[in-house]
Amino acid sequence: MTTMAESLLKGLKENGAEQIFGIPGDFALPFFKVIEESAILPLYTFSHEPGVGFAADAAARSGGGIGVAVVTYGAGAFNMVNTVACAYAEKSPLVVVSGAPGISEGNDDMLLHHQAKTLNSQHEVFKEITCDQAILNDPRTAPQEIARVLQSCLEQSRPVYIEFPRDLVNTPCEEVPALAHTTGHSDAISACAREVLEQLHHATAPLILAGVEVRRYGLEEKVAELSRRLQLPVATTFMGRGLFSTASCELIGSYIGMAGDADVTRAVEESDQVLMLGVIVCDTNFGVSAKRLDMRNTINASDRQVKVGYHQYPDISLAELVEALLAATQSVDETKPGRTISYPHTLVADDNPIEPTDIARAVNDLFASNGPMPIASDIGDCLFTAMDMENTHLVAPGYYATMGFGVPAGLGLQAELNQRPIILVGDGAFQMTGWELGNCRRYGWDPIVLLFNNTCWGMLATFQPETSYNNLDDWQFASMADAMGGDGKRVTTRSELQLALTEAAAKRGRFQLIEIMMTPDARSATLQQFVDAHKRRTGMGQ
Ligand code: S1T
Questions:
Q1: Mean pLDDT of the chain
Q2: Dihedrals φ, ψ of 45, to 5°?
Q3: N or C terminus of the chain with fewer C-beta within 10 Å?
Q4: Same domain for 243 and 321?
Q5: Of 126, 144, 136, 122, which Cα lies nearest the Cα of 167?
Q6: pLDDT per residue over 122-141, tens digit each?
Q7: What's the CA gap between 20 and 393, in Å, rounded?
């Protein structure tokens, strides 16, 4: 018989986890010892729990399995609340395992360290931001409990919470059983697919709008095939950016309303039947629409339900709908080519100051010569600038918009995919979690970090140019890189940028930090248009 800790670790591995990110604490030490000694999954420790959560979230987003974050009770787990909220909002299958006081410890009159209000406070907080929870306080029920939360995690593609009392870690217990799978009613699925096809058939300009669930459920190839069979052009949402970087379909670009490419905006907003597959209907995806989409003319499959105009089909997963649509359509020989999307390229290497678009040009030039690289981006102008970069795999908090995601997410991405990433991050966000780069040396990670240093919280300054509290000091980040185990270069002109990126790409084994100095008012056109559109919608700044 295995122990509870080993069962949990094997259950995680069998259901797609490839590694564990974590920070120990005394309530979690017994479990960490088993993690290390059993070597069932590799362990990567970080410096601050937000970094742990973002790295595990990015691994979940990149690999198509689950991401695992292991932390201690209270101080550790509460430190991850924001990251788990982000994973919940953006549908990332993240498993949070928190050490906890032993069940024999909670009966005294004495408060325990790391306890907030009651010993159950942490569980209560996590109920709000996870889709299922388990407290492993009984070895007889633990295997079933673990199986249930992992099933919820994978089926809903949302975070789950497991609390593990420290005195039960080495208690014998059965293995985690194979997960059950919820399936929709086959008649309902066929009826739904028939109605979807009928609506598309009657439309004059139908189109597929693809969102993050397509990636979360591993459906990129199938959705691409469906678009070919139905001869439908495909746009991604802002959150869905990075989809179809390898699958072939008639991709027209990413929809960002008034902030984005005018042809894509027109195609989406003038379509009389938008087939929305796995889209998060939120303000970053739709708040900047020039013309509000009439949801009655949309088919919306997400969150395990399908809405066709006024009809609702509950309990049908996106995968089931896509499979049924494929079963009802014929394959075609020819793929209509996608629109040729021209991204800015060929950086002019002169002594002019650097604008955000120059960074996109430099990255596109690098991709053209060395091949594409995956990208992890923070929120800020770096993410809007990423829209001008070639469509490669991208992880970013495009909807929840938390800062601090980019650097740790890039490390999680490299751990999961074993590919060198590009990390895009602003100086404000770098002040939050940039220090996690100091962990690269131990694990051999070598991301190329493009730090957009405009010495301000630029996105906020775009909303409020008249204020001064959005100004930041010049921290000289590049000069800190060497002590942290990487190489740093500060650049102020376009020629310096080009040289630094070429050198960074050629050097493997150490993180490469390029600190790109820009004036506080340098911003991408996409960000300016996005902020203007938001101001108009919300009345801010009037
Ligand atoms: N705290 C956290 C954790 N996340 C946030 N999104 C915010 C605060 C609010 C906030 C923004 S944008 C922004 C802040 C402070 C400024 C970002 O500065 P920087 O990283 O330097 O990038 P840039 O200069 O490109 O803006 C959100 C979106 O409201």
A1: 94
A2: -95, 150
A3: C
A4: yes
A5: 136
A6: 999 999 999 999 999 999 99
A7: 22
